[in-house]
């Protein structure tokens, strides 16, 4: 049973050397009469929040720290197939380590996959945690109205591509920022954003935002923090709102950087609200049904970036912090 372990707690930017693929003892025996099952992991999700768990001191993170050496702890959504005890195999979603097989002590902790006709990998992204983040963050926190000016950063990623398209379906004017020309093209041609720009090519983010939002921004869906948030603060409209989903530019820093314009919150009477997807798990069924319908009707399109094999998982995770991923980053672990 090959698995990825964290070798040591990380300070600053993570490296592949902080993680290691090891072949561990199986420990996969299901005690007779227990509710335990073995999950064969097919697709593992790579998510930015994992960086917070790799730090020893993670007061600033929203999830508890990992313990090095003991394997990648149960943290990870994975599309998997549940083997014993069934006539045939069934797809399930659960929290596992980064490993080929996981002993799940209680099968009730696994979520059902209600649409096995959809690609199973989608359950780590558009039909899983990132999709629900976009859905709940948009409708419950940002609360968009038709005609509003909507801006999202890290726009081509797992959450960004979905939230931008949902905002378009609501009738917003949608602009996204991303870190390469390839991603900008994707946003405009594949995801149907009204505009997009490569923030790495802009000398002055404030000027870029003024160019795309001459009348100001109604909703900023925040993914990156730092200098982008600072420029957005100057460009918000009166009484509008910032939904704070993440701040990835800060996750590898020891001290927060880049914010000088918080006074704009007062001047513009802007509401800035953070949220966590874990508070919205009760919406999963409604979300899954709506999102499957959108995908089947081609109202939402979805791009994933697939790394083949568990040994690629460390590089895939680090790639989230350099912008190497184009679309939702996931890893195939074993064959379906
Ligand atoms: P993505 O698929 O968007 O991947 C991360 C992207 O962030 C990279 O591809 C890169 O894109 C961008 N990025 C990386 N470093 C920087 C930087 N220093 N400055 C600016 N951009 C950077 O990830 P997700 O969609 O999974 O997550 C997006 C955000 O949402 C993260 O902040 C994450 O923590 C947060 N999140 C929050 C949740 C919640 O419950 N609140 C749940 C899920 C995610 P580019 O090339 O454009 O720079």
From TrEMBL:
GO terms for molecular function: oxidoreductase activity. Residues 2-70 form the Oxidoreductase N-terminal domain. Keywords: Oxidoreductase. The keyword Oxidoreductase applies. Residues 158-293 form the Alcohol dehydrogenase-like C-terminal domain. The keyword Cytoplasm does not apply. Homodimer. This is Enoyl reductase (ER) domain-containing protein.
